[in-house]
Amino acid sequence: MYKKRLIKFLTLSIATVGGAIYAMGNTVASEAGNSYMESRGMVATGFNRLLGKPLMSLGIFEDFGFSTLGAFNPEGDEPIRLSEKTDKSALLATYVDDAFLESFSGEKPYIVDPASLNLPLRDVRSNIDITGTNFQKIAPVNSFEPWVDQFRHGQAYPFNPIHLKQLLKAKGEAVIRCDDDKAPVIEMKMTGLIPNRFYSVWGFFEPEFVRFPMKDFGPIRPLGGLPNMIVTSRRGDATFERQLNFCPMNLKRGEIPLSTIFLVYHSNHQFGGTVPSFPETGSFPGSVAHVHLHFPVSAKRLR
Amino acid sequence: MKYRSMLSIKCRINHLMVGSLALATSVLFAANAYAEIQTRTIFASTTTGWNKNFASPIAKYPGDVGIFGFRTIGQYNPNGNVIPITGPLPDSTLISTFVDPEWAERLGFPPEALANVKNNIPLREVPVRIDAGGFNKKALSELANQGQMGFGLASPAYPITLGDWLRARGRIDITCFDHKYAHIKGTFSGLVPNHIYTFREWFRPNGSQFIVVPGVLGGAPASFIADKYGNGEYFIKLPSCPPMSADNVDHPFIAIAITVSFAHESGGLVPVLPLHPTDPSFPGERAFGQLHFPLNGERIVPGAGPVSDIRDWPCKHVRMLDSDLVMESPTAPAIGRAKVLIGGALMRPKTEVAFVRPPQPRVDGTLGFLATLRYEFENDDVLEGLIEGTFIPTDDPYVVKNRSKARFVGGANAYDTAIGDFRLGGKANFETLVANLTGKGEVCGPREDDMLSSN
Q: Which residues of A touch B238 (CB under 8 A)?
């Protein structure tokens, strides 16, 4: 009887500890110079934000974050801020958070074109001609009846409106491996993303000191180098695998923690270079680029 | 009793589901019986631009298009202007940006439109936007060689040679349903690992000033990312059918082309922005055609071959035991005979190392260089590679240690699709002008009866 109780107690304890580790979302293991880490993805509606609330504590950045999505407001020019009370059927729309503008502006304050706000995600404008300056809403590819007009530009299937419920289905897992005799590697698997669309993968680092505003996206880097892009499958799945030039679990002197990895959806079918968007020329996180998943590394999960 | 009734309900539900499934299947079969399905498979030709395989057109298209084509890559010239590629060159040729004046001429751009184009940049060194305005651009090198917060290119980021370029293979399978809509499945191999590829459909437009017009196949983003082995696949739904035979010459949809970006950017629904007011771009500056699928007209260059996953290729270990290479001068090619062990067999190929970029001092005190390495075997087989090298100074001011990596792609005869990665060592003495080269790696090829085993 005593033995049975002991076994039950031990089993429960192991389950509780395991459960706690699992609830933290990260599994870390290391052995003889090799280390391994798993981070479960957290769905997001902004950088370190889900429905307006922080997801993680980012070290010296604490609960810093900004939303990159709003709810479409059919009765006004400005989108409605997402909150935990937002209905899951809400149509998602472009939204630029003041917190981003205050934290990341350059020498001149950023100016957001009001016409780029409150657009349902499928209606975000993209450049359509060789001047590079003609931005239009991209119609579905099947909206062209006769094939003679097929060279007109459309957006690929599927092009259903994107509601909060669909967005919240995203899941993912990131695994980082550092072996003694090999370069560190990250492997990510995601499901429930928006099918057939561009995403990109970024790292947010935690420097020793921070000075606001953080010009040129501050401590954000394309994870694993360029290109850091993903094209999701027709089912909304994606994988990403890259070599890293440091081991996040075993930092060398002078290296800084990788706080979180995040995944950005590019609603305008455009991207370029080492930054997620070009706010100095009117393309903002929230108007064309939207954070969809977070994978905390050194950041502490709040949920 | 309760369990039994539950079981019975479950069984009924199962029967209902099976019944529904059978009904749905029958409906689908019935629908398919009436649907007219046409299929077509096309293998890609590798291209050095658009409808160009070196100097030859890949296809003769109907109407005004004819054999129109343009190049988007050139031969890197360390001593001046880019060299247009007009015919086959060694596979170790370093390729670069090249905006073809023929493109401008046939599409109605005045020659002065190309006055500021950036030709002769090796593809890996195409500048990338690095700031929040997209104004500043910089050439990046491999991230593995950068500090933690540096900007860099994903590994592998070896210099792209003509051999790398021509290794690309592609196949599309088109299924047309009732002449109304189509599915296209593309499978690819030999692409630039981790890079963004875009499908462009090309049209012969009526009433346009342009001879051909690109579209986005199946709608934006019409893109896929090649995996780390250079493989890729993509599935596209089209709201209409492309020509299902080459004889359908009236169809305005004439070709599908696959382009790759080395600026790591997408400017929206068009491949280039030649009329951008402040930052124009042209084909051959940032985006480059690598595979071409003619849909109608007369095909001149056949498909390059089947899609072939490099992971399925048999490989042989290679050890470069020694080679005494004599240089005529510090920058002239070094020539000699090497001792090479391939799959256990000893060979003595003629060896030549020629600098593409002579040694240049780096901030860490080492010297960086780029050189071609060529082995000529007795049976006329050739192995060609590009060395990304580092010379490390020693106590002797004339002697440097060599710590390099080499990549072999292509060559001639039996090695025309071989590929291999090597670590190299050795020393070079710039006083005696004698160098030796050692190293190890492996060479892989799709055929087992190549020279690696037959010599």
A: 141, 150
Please return the burial class of B282, using the count of CB atoms within 10 Å of its CB with bins 0-12, 13-18 and 19+.
buried
* CA-based torsion, B138, B142, B143, B147: positive or negative: negative
- Model confidence band, residue B363 (pLDDT cutoffs 50, 70, 90): confident
β-strand partners of B280: none
Question: Is residue A213 within 8 angstroms of chain B, CB to CB?
Answer: no
For an interface test with A, the pick among B123, B137, B149 (most A C-beta atoms closer than 10 Å) comes out as B149
Distance in angstroms (rounded) separating the CA atoms of residues B353 and B338 = 11
∠ Cα B114 B117 B123 (to 5°): 140
Percent of chain A scored above 70 by pLDDT?
A: 88
Tell me how crowded residue A169 is: count the other CB atoms within 10 A of its CB.
11
Side chain identity at residue B344, one-letter code: G
Locate A242 and state its tokens.
């890259």
Q: Does A104 touch chain B (CB under 8 A)?
A: yes
Residue in the structure block whose two tokens are 């498909």: B303
How many domains does chain A divide into? 1
What is the full DSSP assignment across B73-134? Answer: EEE--TTSS-EE--S---TTPBEEE---HHHHHHTT--GGGGTT---S-BGGG--EE-STTS
Checking if the pLDDT of B19 tops 60, the result is no
Q: pLDDT tens digits for B106-139? A: 888 888 889 999 999 999 999 999 999 999 999 9
Across the interface, whether the CB atoms of A231 and B225 are under 8 A apart is answered: yes
Dist. CA B192–CA B291, nearest whole Å: 12
Q: Other CB atoms closer than 10 Å to residue B87's CB: what's the count? A: 7
Q: How many beta-carbon pairs under 8 angstroms link A with B?
A: 219
Contacts with B157 from chain A: Cβ below 8 Å: 225
Query: Does B216 reach chain A within 8 Å, measured CB to CB?
Result: yes
What CATH architecture is B313-444? Beta Barrel (2.40)
- CA gap B125, A128 in Å, rounded: 27
User: By CA distance, what is A288's nearest residue in B?
Assistant: B268
For the stretch B339-373, what's the b/e string if a residue is b when 16 or more beta carbons lie within 10 angstroms of its beta carbon?
bbebeeeebebebbbbbbbebeeeeeebbbbbbbb
Q: With an 8 Å Cβ cutoff, is A246 touching chain B?
A: yes
Q: Mind listing the pLDDT tens digit for each residue in A93-136? A: 999 999 999 999 877 889 999 999 999 999 999 988 888 898 88
Report the residue of A245, A280, A298 to disrupt the B interface, i.e. the one with the largest count of B CBs within 10 Å. A245
CA-based radius of gyration for chain A? 21
Residues spanned by the domain of A105: 2-301
Q: Which residues in A lie closer than 8 A to residue B214 (C-beta atoms)? A: 151
Domain ranges within chain B, ordered by starting residue: 42-299, 313-444
